[in-house]
Amino acid sequence: MSSKSRKKVLLMGKSGSGKTSMRSIIFRNQLAADTRRLGATIDVESSQIKFLGGLRLDLWDCGGQDSFMDSHLTSQSSTIFRSVHSLIYIFDAESPDLTSSDTHYFLKCLGALRDQNPINSDTVVESAGGADPAEGEEAEGQGPTVFILLHKMDLVPEAQQSSKLAEFEADVTKRATESGWKGNLKFYGTSIWNETLYKAWSIVIAHLMPSLSSLRSHLSHFLELSSASEVVLFERTTFLVISSVTAPSEAEDAEDWDKRRFERISTMVKAFKLGCTRIRSPFSSLTLSSPNYTAVLDTLTPETYILVLARNTIQPAAIELNIRLARPHFGKLEAIGMSK
């Protein structure tokens, strides 16, 4: 399997920061309330996850206890940090050591990542404030990207969340630059109790996806042919957002739409699917109607779901027919991606 279709991703952070909980919610379909029973990660837990286009994600969940972190950075450094595509580092927003020992270990991880992937020396620091998943494609030759999640933001008063993230981003970026790091840094505030977790992980997964811009162009063509207002593509298992397009004619109205609508949909539909599973009733599709819009959520390919939003002048049956007619085309695109 080529390196482009198999990507190694490290999930790191101090013990108790929430790494295993978010991994269980995103990849194991657990509810946030059920993660309280999870134990701490011992040493390293590696798992392989299949995604759209033949992408294989090698996710390494690295234990965050001090003894394990010291081992990761010394005797295991070449094993853990070599050939890494991306690092996802989790900080506990309420940790008393957030700006001291927690950041100290992070900077040491950056040093190990730089030493094992020297191509980082040629890259430029980027501070992400909200990159669109559709723009998350990897730039060839840039080396690992670092995603920094300031987690458990629900414990921070809502009025202080934005300023806390901004201050933390500025401080960590400054210290990382002073330590010699020249690679990408992308910051997001997250919580397992709301859609911010899906927003951040959608961007991470979109960053790993091959040929995302090509897929987006095909979605735009589908949107135009079906006279839809908006089209959203979800990964089938995790229900993370892969890409989305909005009709130019809806641009003015879209300014007033919920900016987190896609991630809210991910959260709700995944919970609904879990409910269907528990009563042994398989989930296949969903149709919703309002006075102004009709939405149809249905399978597009073996690896994706598609959500089509249209004015209520378009009947649900017409949307369902367009999705059915589009399946062979998008199935071929997926097969092409898997063959690369």
From TrEMBL:
Top-rank lineage group of the source organism: Eukaryota
Single GO biological process annotation from the record: positive regulation of TORC1 signaling
InterPro entries named among the record's database cross-references: Gtr1_RagA, P-loop_NTPase
Signal peptide: none
GO molecular function, one term: GTP binding
SUPFAM superfamilies assigned: P-loop containing nucleoside triphosphate hydrolases
Cellular component, GO, one term: Gtr1-Gtr2 GTPase complex
Gene3D superfamilies reported in the protein's UniProt record: 3.30.450.190, P-loop containing nucleotide triphosphate hydrolases
Keywords: GTP-binding, Nucleotide-binding
Family: Belongs to the GTR/RAG GTP-binding protein family.
Subunit (UniProt): Component of the GSE complex.
Function: GTPase involved in activation of the TORC1 signaling pathway, which promotes growth and represses autophagy in nutrient-rich conditions.
Name of this chain's protein: GTP-binding protein
Source organism per UniProt: Leucosporidium creatinivorum
